[in-house]
Amino acid sequence: MRRLGVAALAAVLAAAGVGAVSGAGYGPATRSTVDTAAVPVQLQPNVVMIVVDDMREDELRYMPETRRLLGRKGVRFVNSFAPYPLCCPARASMLTGQYTHNHRVYDVDEPYAFPSLKDGSTLATALQDSGYATILLGKYLNGYGYMPEPGAESGNSLHYVPPGWTDWRASIDHGLRRTHPDKGGTYNYFDTTLSDDGQGFHGYEGKYQTYVYGRLSSRIIEQRAAADRPFFLFANYTGPHNGFPVESDDVRSVVNADGESVTVESPARPDELKGMFDDVIKRAPGADWVDPDRSDQPEYLRSRPAMNQAEREALTDVTRQRAEALAAVDRSVERTVTALRRSGELDDTLLVFTSDNGYFLGEHGIRQGKTLPYEPALNTPLLMRGPGIPSGERRTDPFLQIDFAPTIAELAGASLDLPVDGSSMLDVARNGDVGWSRPVLTETGPKGVIRDTDEAGQPLEPEDPGERDIRWAIGIRTPQYLYVHLASGEEELYDIHQDPEQYDNLVGEPGHGQLLEQLRAELARMRACDADQCRQPLPRGLATAPTE
């Protein structure tokens, strides 16, 4: 029988009016005066969190086994959001429960990315302190391997293992010399290198990465199920992110309407999956995104040329290849669930499937990409199955990436030793929606234009040494509206319900002045929020959405 970790047992005993317990790490706790046999104890469930890279919410249609095993046996959060839709900041938010302006991982490149995360207190350390074995498999934060360790000025992180991880199987981005036998990387689907707990490396040249992660996940589950200890498996797949090798059927580039060559990026796929969606996918989801009047859009969007036929055909091909890459993930998800069932752990495991961010495929004139706070990039898939969670239900309350850490911590009886901006959504998952009452802060940056204010919005003079707000776009997403303020001074306001394609920027249109002032005030309140401030409810007028 699985034992409770010290922190979880302390919480149970406190709720029962029992005295304190002592102990360190995982192991039997002791107490001096009360018989714990009389205390009803809930065992700590395992947690298996599967994260893919750059997957849109609507791409779940290409993953029938994932929908069957997690969606029909659990809940689907249709308003799952990446407040900062970019790999590295998003993953840092998952591990810390913090918005980007608090964890400070602003980008995938230096001086941000992997070294900028203060990793001494994360979900991993909290779970380990609560008695969990913690395993990371696959992608970590961009730059792991070749960038310096956190706090270091030079060197690399090839042998670095962040605090809190019992078993470290992170993929390295770069760092090994080209002649090294294990020189593969995160984005090479047929040549991946994983850390062996910081002591060495495992190379998987010639093996398709997604299938490797599925096999390793199964092996980890089998090994951990045999131990008298709950486990947290954080499995991070690269698919459907673009990656190597370049394949013979890839569209490398096309010429746009301005006569410029545009690079086309796609993931690599195993041969047996190639072509499986050719008869299903006829067009990219954003191929028909045509704003009839772009004069109300910000300049950086307004200046993009309309897509021509060659670009549409290329995006159709990219959409098919992404679906094929996700079909491989679908098989690995099925393999993971099978391993849990065979080991007898399925009913005692919280299973989570999500993505770090969404992805543009033509919407807003953006052929490929993310980072910006429009629905294709902001909205992510989220399925959740586990103890106490009903089958086949839908949730509309917002679930943000800052909510994963507090949600999992509550389930595990763990304490997060850092200020958390998010909220536990465990009760919503188990018992149903309570209503969308909080704002979603969206953040994007840095880009070329730097604001002349600090992060709280206070003006700074050119000679002022104060730290400037480097975010290009910040905004507020509510049940009905998206408001965005750009560093250029431009503003956007969209009614998501009336205008789901976000064609009509309502800034400056008659009848929206009061709404705009409300949203500006809400952004002013949220833009530098911390912990409890981030969880304050929306004003009454902004918290109400039209009836579906």
Show the helix and strand layout.
Elements: H1 6-15, E1 46-52, H2 64-71, E2 75-77, E3 80-81, H3 87-96, H4 100-103, H5 123-129, E4 133-138, E5 167-170, E6 193-195, E7 201-203, H6 209-225, E8 231-236, E9 253-255, E10 261-263, H7 299-302, H8 309-342, E11 349-355, H9 375-378, E12 382-385, E13 393-395, E14 399-400, H10 404-412, H11 426-431, E15 440-444, E16 473-477, E17 481-486, E18 491-495, H12 513-526
Helix pairs in contact: 2-8, 6-8
What does this structure look like?
The protein is built from twelve helices and 18 strands. It is α/β, with parallel strands linked by helices and 548 residues long. It folds into four domains: 6-38, no CATH class; 50-244 and 330-428, Alkaline Phosphatase, subunit A (3-Layer(aba) Sandwich), CATH 3.40.720.10; 253-315, no CATH class; 440-542, Arylsulfatase, C-terminal domain (2-Layer Sandwich). The longest helix is centred in the middle third of the chain and has 34 residues, at 309-342.
Give the structural class: alpha/beta
Calculate the terminal CA-CA distance, rounded to whole Å. 46 Å
Order of helices and strands: HEHEEHHHEEEEHEEEHHEHEEEHHEEEEH
How many structural domains can be distinguished in the coordinates?
A: 4
- What would CATH call the class of the largest domain? Alpha Beta
Strand line-up in the sheet with most strands: 5-4-8-1-11-12-2-13
Low-confidence stretches: 5-9, 12-42
Q: Care to count the β-strands?
A: 18
Largest sheet: 8 strands, mixed
- CATH fold descriptor of the largest domain: Alkaline Phosphatase, subunit A
Quickly count the helices: 12
Give me the CATH superfamily of the largest domain: Alkaline Phosphatase, subunit A
State Rg: 23 Å
- The residue-averaged pLDDT reads 91
